[in-house]
Structure formats: C-alpha cells, structure tokens
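G., the chain you wanted modeled:
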Amino acid sequence: MNQYDVLQKYFGHDTFRPGQETLIEAILAGQDVLGVMPTGAGKSACYQVPAMLLPGLTLVISPLISLMQDQVAALRQSGIEAACIHSGMDEKEYWDIVQGARFGQYKLLYVAPERLETDGFLSLISSVRIFLVAVDEAHCVSQWGQDFRPSYLRIAGFLERLAPRPPVGAFTATATGQVKQDIARLLELRDPVCVTTGFDRSNLYFAVERPRDKDQFVEDYIKDHPGKSGIIYCSTRKTVELVCTQLRKARISATRYHAGLEAEERRKNQEDFVYDRCRVMVATNAFGMGIDKSNVGFVIHYNMPKNIENYYQEAGRAGRDGSAAECILLYALGDVQTARFLIQNSHDNEELNEEQARQIEKLDLQRLDRMVAYCKTTRCLRGFLLEYFGQQQTGGCGNCGNCQGDFVQTDITTEAQKILSGVARIEKRWPGGLGVVALVQMLRGSQDKNTLKRGLNELPTYGIMRDTPPARMRLYLDALEEQGYLVNTQGEYPVVRLAASAREVLFQGKAVTMTERRTKEKVKIPAKAKVSAPTNLSLDLYERLRAVRSELAQKQHVPAYIILSNASLAEMASKCPRTTGDLMRISGVGEARAHRYGKKFLQVIAEYLAQNPSE
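Predicted structure as tokens:
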C-alpha cells in the first residue's frame, strides 16, 4: 500500500491537495518538515497518511483536549485506530490507552505538550518506538506567535530523549516569516522541507461593517441566512451574555461559550452547536481552536480581535468543507480601547515570566495596530490579509466587501481643518494631550461633566461640529490618521496629536479627501467557492441524505460532519451512486465509511430515484 492507496481507502480522496504530497514524501523519506497551510487545507493528512505507512506509532503533540478528541473521532470513523491522552480522563482510561499503545493497538497517539515531561508518559515512550512526531499548531512555540506557550519550548528537549530520533513534522495555519524561522529553530528541525501553500481561502467572503446598532445587524443577518450555522465572536464574557440573550429573545437558536461558565456547561453548549442542536454559537476566543465543524456558514466578529492572526484563524472556522461562507467584522471605535485594555491587563498565561510577559505585550500592541489598519482600509481586504502573512496579491479579489463596494472620493477639507484646529487648541491648553473621546465630545459640544471640568467648553472650537453624527466623525478621524495628519499615541492612555503635515491643511489650504463607500442597497454576495453544490443538485434528495446522516450521527454519538461533510452529501445527491463502489468514488467517503454507512445512503438514493424516474 502506498500514500495514494491510503488517501483513497481511509480518506476517500483521489488526489492530494497542494503541498500535501511534497510533505508526505519527505516524511516517508525520513526528513523533517514544516508545513504552513490555511485552515481547512488538509494539514492533518500530511502526518496521518504517513502514519498509516510507517511501521509503528506516530505521536501528535496538540494544544487542546477538544482538538485531540475531534481528530481521534474522525480517524476512527475512517477506520484508523487512534487515541488521545489528556487531563480530563480517569486513571483506568489512561492506563488502558497506555497499555494499548505498548501493545501496538494505535497508529496515532495525541498528547498535550505538558504531558511530555511526566514520569508516566516518559515510561511509556521508553518502551515504545516512535516513528514520527507531528507538532500541531506549531506557531505556539514562538514568542512572535499570537498563542505563545512556553511548554512548546520543551518539545526539542523531549525529542532528544527519543532513540533513534524520528522525523519531525511541524504544522500551522498562521505564521509570518519571523514565526516560521522560530518554529524551525526552537523545535530544532533538521534541514526541514518547508512548504507554504499560501494563506488564501477563496471560498470565504470578507467584509468590515460599521453598523450603528450591532445587535440589530446580527439579528437581521442571521434571519437573512436561514439554515446557516455560524459563530459570533465577542471580546468579553459580558458581551457574550448580552448578545446570546438578545438572539434568544429574537427566537434564534443560540448558545454561549466563555471561560466563566462551568466546565460541564461549556461542554454541553459546545456539543449543542457541534451536533447542530443550536444554530448559533456566541463565544469569546476561548472557543474554536479544537472545533473542526465543517458546516459553519458564517463567522461574525461582534468586536474587533486583538490581532490579524487571531482574526484569520477564527474567521477560518467558516467554510471548512469548501462551501461558500462569509466572515464579517463589525468595527467600532470603542473596540480599539477594549482590545488595548485586554492586552495590557490580561495576563492569563501563567507560563510566562515577567520579561516574557512584557515582550509579549509590546508585540501585541504592534499587532493591534495592523488589526485596526485592516478595519479602516478601503483596499482589497483579502489582499491586506495575505500580504500580512507575506503572500503578495496583485489587484482586487472580487470577493470581499471592499472589492464589491462602490467607493467615492469626498472632499473633507473643511471638516479636516475643524478637527485639526480642535486638536491644536487642546494641545495648547493640555500639553499632555487628550484622547479621541474627549476630542469628539468637545467638537460636538457635549455637556458631559469631563468636558466641562476640563474647560473644553471654553475653547473656540467647542461645538463647531455639533451637527456631525459620531459615526461620521469617526470616519473623518480615521481618514486623517491614515493620511498622516493625526497621530494616536501608544501606551495605556493614548492621546491624539497633530502630525507635522497638519500645518499644510491648517495654514496652506491643502485639500483633503476621504475614500468612502457610496450609500446604496446591500450588495448580494456571490457564492464563489472551491466546492459548492452542483447545479443539478436535488435539494429534496440532499435533505433526505442529511436526515440519514443526522440519524447515524446520533447513534454513533458524534457530530454530523464526522460522518460525512456537506460537500460529500452534495456530490452524492448530484451523482446518485448506485453501488458501494460508486459511493467510494464520492470525495470524502473512503472505504471504511462506505462499508459502515453505505447501505443506508444507497437505500435513500434508490428510493428517491424510484419516486423520481426523470432524475
């Protein structure tokens, strides 16, 4: 059996995706590898396929219990023996798996990096030969990465204990050039074969919206997308609670997930979403890394994330089966302050020492600046994201909110002069400077106590923009900052400063324009996707197949997508396979699933064709 046989038999695919074959061949040749591939591009197959061809055990180091459990469940459905060791299991279950590994029962064993140094695990490793070590979410080893975990730094020491040392594969979906260098250096990879397939997910539509009422936007969006399952990310637990309550009041099936809930409730709510009992998950970023739910149709960020790495990873949980999906970020000025506060006040990684924490905070603030720039840009959003990860794109993508937007140039010279004058007056009275909120309140003639206490109501510029809505003010300020006339300082209490070029506008009459989207009806989003429902797809048959999948999933106590993906069902409904052999040629089915579940699906197809002979 070779890698092509394994791919067909266990995973139901005829061909490898870009990059997979190179990495697999290198591993089988005994070489170390580093694979950087976007979410949903098939990173796991790069070590799962070799694991089936190598004579003994493959060890997979993975950061989250849910991630390990999901991978193991999927492998078992494919007919592959796999297990995971984690802190949530009882002692008997742990020793059963240890014994199974000793007697060669498993091809893949998943563990967390913290497990590597325990006496019990080291004892196991001393009695079992490891033929491959795969490091998942490898960006966690780098201080430049957004999910730095010092326990990953100890992986290299663990590898030295293995004799002989097996080939090592490191895999991640989000890594800048600096992070890739760190992964290779800190894991001590030996002349690794490096493959970066690109970060583009062409089936995802990206957009940034600035709604006046985020709650109303979310409610309308979900109701406009019936039948779609999605995730709504919020920056705080409180916001999760408020948004979830609002959706339930609107009769939308929603559940919630954040670190403040009891572990049992988190588990139940996660299962309700994964098993399609709840349509919408409202969560903090504590939810998601271990979730491989393939039929997520949309991801909405209610608040701006702290960095582009997190955003792209979280948005990438949409459309994992290749179907068209939408990633919408709702941006508001207050999100920047919230993100900065969270960076400077949340020190939840207890593994970091004081110097590491200080360095991480500095890097986080730099990453926040790029996240804000993404929210404000009028250029192609996909191009902005790809260039951040070092992948150049020429021209627009045609499948993002900015490429589909109708933009116009607006002369804002008068408004710019008023705002810059206001900043100049504040700087004269308050040399230390004031923040954006104080500036806007002064220009709009606010009567709040802070404005009056500071004497801002006595300035000549007080109230000169009282008729300008706050949202419009925000656009002006963004444009002036982007064009280099204003500067927002860093630090715990950022203030607004005039840049040197502001004099040209104030005293030399330089014209200022702003690029903005023309107000019009909502643009219809095209269903551009790598894998979409075939044109001759019978929705009736598709729904019947989904019902069978649901029934099988309930009996097996696994999520529906573990049985078969939506894309596989769509192809099945289109091609109407008559035999087990035909079924095995459906992408994603494979031998194990065809023999285990094929009879049920083929029976439904036969009944449908008997009732609809014209099909």
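Residues 522-535 have pLDDT under 50 and may be disordered.

Shout if anything looks off.
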